[in-house]
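Appendix B, record 7
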Amino acid sequence: YTASIHESITKSKEKLTLFYEHKMPKEEEAYLLALQKTLEKDSKYGTTSCGVQHDDMILYLNGSDVRIYGSQGQQRTAALSLKLAEIELVKSLIHDTPVLLLDDVMSELDSNRRNYLLDSIKDIQTVVTCTGYDDFIKSRLTIDKIYEVVQGTVNEMQVL
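Structure tokens (predicted):
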């Protein structure tokens, strides 16, 4: 589902594929052996140096690792594709829509990608943090509350 969202955002110019990278053996016996090898060190330092928490998901854009070869906008779009797919997954599992949190997401997106994102979140309760509140966002979203932070002071602004 993530790939189709990404294709929609980019108007089929980019193909996103996901690869799950296992850092631990898949076989139970080998997995347990790996944990046993690090048990003493992990107990001493209060950490877990091996396990599924070290696995990774690698995103490829048109066959290239987006972390290395993707622009800031492409990396942000790939992350948004994952986030929008996650919302759909959660909606299907719990039959309710989660709150979406977006932190300064607009700054690295071109107008087509911004339009797609804003159209996608119209019916989703969203909290957006950004450094600029421009007419583009105001005209595209129904905004209930706006808070401005100036020199550490939070002020509620009037929604026009």
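Remarks on this record: The chain is about 45% helix and 20% strand. The CA atoms of residues 14 and 62 lie 6 Å apart.
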